Amino acid sequence: MTFKEQIQQGIPAVLPVKKVYDLAINHAPKRKDILSAEEKKLALKNALRYFEAKHHAELLPEFAEELEKYGRIYMYRFRPDYEMKARDIAEYPGKSVQAKSIMLMIQNNLDYAVAQHPHELITYGGNGAVFQNWAQYLLTMQYLSEMTDKQTLTMYSGHPMGLFPSNKNAPRVVVTNGMVIPNYSQPDDWEKMNALGVSQYGQMTAGSYMYIGPQGIVHGTTITVLNGFRKIKKAPKGGLFVTAGLGGMSGAQPKAGNIAGCITVCAEVNPKITQVRLDQGWIDEKIIDLDELVTRVNSAKENKETVSIAYLGNIVEVWEKFDEANVYIDLGSDQTSLHNPWAGGYYPVDISFEDANSMMAENPELFKEKVQETLRRHAKAINKHTDKGTYFFDYGNAFLLEASRAGADVMNPNPTIGREFKYPSYVQDIMGPMCFDYGFGPFRWVCASGKPEDLAKTDAIACEVLEKIKENSPKEIQQQMADNIQWIKGAQENKLVVGSQARILYADAEGRMKIAKAFNKAIKKGEIGHVVLGRDHHDVSGTDSPYRETSNIYDGSQFTADMAIQNVIGDSFRGATWVSIHNGGGVGWGEVINGGFGMLLDGSKEASKRLKSMLFWDVNNGISRRSWARNSEAVFAIKRAMKSEKKLKVTLPNFVDDALLKNF
Predict the structure, then answer these.
(1) pLDDT tens-digit series, residues 527-559
(2) Residues annotated within a binding site
(3) What's the pTM?
(4) Comparing C-alpha atoms, which of 216, 313, 325, 329 is closest to residue 262?
(5) What's 3-196's CATH class?
């Protein structure tokens, strides 16, 4: 069968041969045994409903074995034989070009070079899933190949509920992930519902089909590191940045450190993923001995090198060793997946990687105890360095939140609303006031042709647009503009592409609309192929996350999620090709609501109208919420937006003199 025929057949009528478990692939850890005997039967019934009754007797023992071995039913037998990668959009079967663009993005999320656990359909973060099982993938791709521009595919946590009549201006796909009743939003609730096959954790861009590999966070991390050094009034050259995590998104940190120009030490416990990052060129060196690491870092400091070093081992060992050896750390953070602390997101110190994985599945209570012991020790070591002057920030991975729950010394001795922790979130001190409040966030695009030359052309177009905008930009956003122009000019030489031919840069509404408009014109002229627009959920208005994206909201509304819900609803009727809303993300299940979108540019007048309508809303929805919280940068930005668009009229806050409140 051809590739197109395999897509169109969906779930095959004749069962494919059972596949051998590939030990060369980086697999998800075994999930804990959380279902009762009755619930296991229900999980099997739920899995078998995808298949004709004549196949049930053969598939039942196989699915039961998967549930027992891995804690989930992945249906490995149905994993396609074709190469999993984003192809030229013209290679996909279908009646709708918009649907073809979504197929392209789904396959990119599952590309072996992109996905963290590709055979388990997990893109990043340990549990950020595109689908729960391979039957869902096959059925979804079949639906997309049949869809017309007058239908919408409804996705329930990876399950394609079906094609429904709609209209050409409606989204082609609407995605929800993990949208459970709030009282059932604890970690074990997710474990149980995921094991039953009824809900999944979409992370952010994993379940939204908009992940573009670590590049997606390289830029944000680069900006964070650059501004972190600006905050401590030190040039990055010769400065030391210490952090942890080389998995999905966290793998961006060493590359970002290199672009910023500092020394980066990033610890990782997983040997496979460490080697992958070394092979990909995302890290320069790998060291397994702590004494050797100290010597190497001291040498790099002395020579003011720009270098990224992976330490294969636990990050706690690094913090403690550097304290003992008096290695001064300028910037410190952590990007392990602490939103997922009990299932592979964070590993206990002094236990081997293999033994920890066994303990995680076989003795989860002891594993939790060891993780919390490690968090207390981790925080204690960090505190010793910050006492010496290190600037430490939480990278929005729930490090401080989980450390506090473990009883670690991370609480602010003099807390105020929104500043309960000893250390700030990077959004509070850097990304929030410097970027999000002004409307700057992670705008991204993917060249649907798959051609590197198309990406080079879009880079040049974007750079030209930004340089023209910068000429008349107010002084308040000149630094943001300059950083992004520098970024896009160096994008090709930094070799950021993994998987699809994609790019990201931080832009405000004006920049996003003008860049998109220029792309659409180039497509119409035949200069480039179709382009898919999107963004990370880690943005101005897509996400309500009190410990990350909205951590610099201090009016008491940081635990509300109106903004994210309004965002995705507004995007859906303003022209998005697909929209998504998730419970959970980089900070954990039940801790955040995330909204995302994708939009296909095809060179048409309709695309030009859609991009203007939707991108303006997508950004300014968030700026308006931030301005109402009395963030002065956002008040400035929303006033500019109202001046540029006469149809926009936003309620502005009146500021209260704090002196009036002294006696109350």
Answers:
(1) 999 999 999 988 999 999 998 899 999 999 999
(2) 125-126, 203, 268, 395, 586
(3) 0.88
(4) 329
(5) alpha beta
